[in-house]
Design goal:
Elements (H helix, E strand, L loop, with lengths): L6 E2 L3 E4 L6 H7 L3 H6 L8 H11 L5 E8 L4 E12 L2 E10 L8 H15 L5 E7 L3 H9 L3 E10 L2 E11 L11 H4 L4
Helix pairs in contact: 1-3
């Protein structure tokens, strides 16, 4: 792990973060929603972006891609982190999109490419997803990617306990939108 294969979709190029991404990551991570719903440091500084590119992204237990359009516009980041849990290796996915590019389907396209790569090339059996309660956009993307909702649990993040929604996608699962509780998706009944 650590080094990642470059992935391409119809509209996107996904590759390992490098120094050319630092400024775009720094700017995107000033967004209040990214700060609220991810585990980035707050406030987020240039040093944090450099640390992400040079230390966190190449972590041998992770796969991390920056997402850019084919013309080079920075879209966001998607990553998977694997950690041992007992005798099992658990892989989780996380993602975020620059505020100005939300609603265009880029993040869903990137997540689909990463999941395809995870299940075929990397031979990962299952991917877990979790997000803070209220992060309805992440939940909607996970549901549309085929993740099955597994529940709500308390988790300690940033030195406090918060409720998070959880879901899982197995390599053998259909990659079709799944029904989730309406309150998780921010929709009415």
């Amino acid at each position: 792990m650590g080094d990642v294969d470059e992935l391409r979709t119809e509209r996107l190029r996904l590759r390992q973060p490098d120094d050319g991404d630092i400024e775009a990551i720094l700017i995107a991570c000033q967004d209040p929603d990214i700060q609220r719903y991810t585990l980035i440091p707050v406030p987020y500084t240039r040093g944090d972006a450099e640390h992400f590119v040079h230390v966190l992204a190449p972590d041998p237990m992770s796969y991390t891609w920056t997402i850019r359009t084919l013309d080079g516009t920075f879209v966001g980041v998607v990553g998977m982190h694997t950690r041992p849990v007992g005798d099992e290796r658990v892989t989780s996915i996380g993602y975020w999109c620059a505020a100005a590019l939300r609603g265009r389907g880029y993040l869903g396209e990137a997540v689909t490419a990463v999941l395809d790569h995870a299940f075929t090339t990397l031979r990962i059996d299952r991917v877990r997803w979790s997000a803070l309660v209220g992060n309805v956009y992440s939940a909607r993307l996970a549901a549309s990617a085929g993740f099955r909702y597994t529940g709500l649990r308390a988790e300690t993040l940033r030195d406090r306990t918060d409720d998070v929604h959880t879901a899982v996608l197995l390599a053998v699962d259909p990659r079709t939108p799944q029904p989730w509780p309406p309150e998780v998706l921010g929709t009415s009944r």
